[in-house]
Design goal:
mainly alpha; 9 helices
Length: 181
């Protein structure tokens, strides 16, 4: 309803109120959000089997096992998107070779089905550090040594990252690149 009035995410409250005089603001409720994710996962379970809730705002679907049931990735996505469109929620999506990569692409609003790992890596490399789920402390530490983008991080071999940074960063990059489970 807010979107039909021209209200967008991140918009200031005063601007939103100016666009729609009867604006009603509700505080964020994590319990409701968790219940809605559960509701969406139950709706999707009728057409796909391996679903993980990625709190606070996401779902991860393991696609590889479902491709034996569906003709191909495009057909599978048509079935999934039909289920999602029947629900009263907006969503962003993406596919990738690892859950973390797919999540980052979806959060960035990719809204694409990627099948080429080189294309996925190229898009990931174009992202900045604040777009990741790295902590503010990790981002600041990286900025101090001149690293501001994922491209710069991907250019450093994991073994070298392990010598210079903590294990959390190495694990993050290993998962993002698909080298670690």
């Amino acid at each position: 309803a807010a979107a039909t009035e021209g209200i967008k995410l991140g918009m200031g409250l005063a601007t939103a109120a100016a666009l729609y005089a009867d604006l009603c603001v509700h505080p964020h409720n994590a319990d409701i959000e968790a219940k809605k994710l559960q509701e969406i996962s139950h709706a999707l379970y009728t057409v796909t089997s391996d679903i993980s809730i990625c709190a606070p705002q996401g779902l991860l679907l393991r696609i590889s096992h479902m491709l034996t049931l569906y003709k191909d990735l495009r057909h599978y996505w048509r079935v999934i998107s039909a289920q999602l469109k029947a629900l009263p929620y907006s969503y962003r999506f993406s596919t990738a070779y690892s859950p973390l990569a797919a999540s980052l692409l979806a959060t960035a609003g990719a809204n694409k089905i990627y099948q080429n790992p080189k294309k996925i890596l190229s898009i990931l490399k174009s992202r900045t550090l604040p777009e990741t789920t790295l902590s503010a402390k990790q981002i600041e530490q990286l900025k101090r040594v001149g690293i501001k983008t994922l491209r710069q991080l991907f250019d450093i071999p994991l073994a070298e990252l392990a010598k210079r940074f903590d294990a959390d960063l190495v694990n993050y990059m290993g998962q993002l690149s698909g080298q670690f489970q």
